[in-house]
Amino acid sequence: MERTVASVQGAYFLTTGLWPIFSIRTFMMITGPKTDLWLVKTVGAVLAVIGAALLVAGIADQVTQALVLLAVGSAAALAAVDVIYASRKVIAPVYLLDAVLEAALILWWVAALLL
């Protein structure tokens, strides 16, 4: 199950990370206007790299403790940012949907590690 969750999270992070790099216009249509586009694209690039690492590890069946820490830690960090800044109305409420998805990924990791 670890392979599957790593692959799914990897695909999600890779896709959402590349999205603002390749189409900042459509990204902002969904997530709201941004002022520091370089920062949005930088975060996207970092997420894409994390996603690629998770995807490769899942496909190659090389899910290590370090990779699980990266997966769960990055999902938790993103969920925290989503909830904190959406509740303060700094970012659009649509980010709460991402927080739910990040929480689901964390729970999936917990299930995968316990089974």
From TrEMBL:
It comes from the Bacteria. The keyword Transmembrane helix applies. The chain crosses the membrane at residues 12-31, 38-60, 66-87, 94-114. Keywords: Membrane, Transmembrane, Transmembrane helix. This is Uncharacterized protein.
